[in-house]
User: Which sequence fits this backbone?
């Protein structure tokens, strides 16, 4: 597994996670994960983080869905883990994503402020708005239109998205709530049409901004996937 390191100091590591690779094992499959890469290349990180039963999550302070690509932040020691986890909890870390979604989003920019709960019909899915079950957790997502375009006679919108909270599947759920689900999302948009050249979830973690242990603000940016660039040519 080839993983690109985007940033590293003695406490913090930022890598570029490819699409199609899980951050950690679900305990059921044996496919390689980011965790396996970390344990192989940074064995001293094995015990960094919170105990999670039999599943290793060395240095993991946040996660990206399996099909989402982009910047992933990891802690190299326990002090850094607690420091970064606190920044996430206090919503001090700034994350920026890019996405291609179905249809032409009407407003040039907007804010989706809808709590997220569980879907009553599918345990894998989350739901915003009416019908959500269980504990509803506040969720806020800002978006800005970069470009509206037509591909294979279908309308799509290229968005910059900034989640202000970190709920499971938040961007995917909120874009579904807006009736503009992320393109090629097999869970929330199974009947949607994919733009030509894209066969994966059209969601990418473009950048992340955080403070290092000395208090310096660090911004790490990842490469925009070539398939995203190609669809906009």
Assistant:
């Amino acid at each position: 597994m080839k993983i690109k390191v985007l940033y590293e100091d003695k406490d913090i590591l930022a890598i570029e996670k490819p699409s199609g690779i899980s951050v950690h094992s679900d305990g059921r499959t044996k496919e390689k994960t980011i965790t396996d890469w970390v344990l192989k290349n940074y064995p001293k990180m094995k015990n960094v983080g919170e105990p999670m039963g039999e599943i290793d999550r060395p240095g993991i302070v946040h996660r990206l869905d399996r099909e989402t690509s982009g910047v992933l932040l990891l802690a190299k020691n326990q002090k850094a883990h607690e420091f970064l986890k606190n920044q996430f909890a206090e919503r001090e870390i700034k994350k920026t994503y890019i996405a291609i979604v179905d249809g032409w989003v009407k407003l040039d920019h907007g804010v989706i402020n809808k709590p997220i709960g569980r879907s009553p019909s599918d345990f894998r899915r989350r739901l915003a708005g009416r019908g959500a079950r269980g504990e509803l957790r506040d969720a806020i997502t800002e978006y800005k239109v970069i470009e509206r375009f037509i591909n294979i006679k279908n309308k799509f919108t290229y968005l910059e998205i900034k989640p202000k909270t970190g709920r499971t599947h938040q961007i995917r759920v909120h874009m579904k709530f807006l009736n503009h689900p992320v393109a090629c999302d097999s869970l929330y948009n199974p009947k949607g049409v994919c733009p030509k050249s894209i066969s994966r979830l059209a969601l990418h973690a473009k950048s992340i901004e955080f403070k290092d242990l000395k208090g310096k603000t660090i911004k790490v940016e990842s490469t925009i996937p070539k398939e995203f660039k190609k669809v906009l040519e």
Summary: The chain has a mean pLDDT of 93. Residues 139 and 165 are 6 Å apart (CA to CA). The radius of gyration is 18 Å. Helices lie at 34-41, 78-89, 170-177, 226-232.
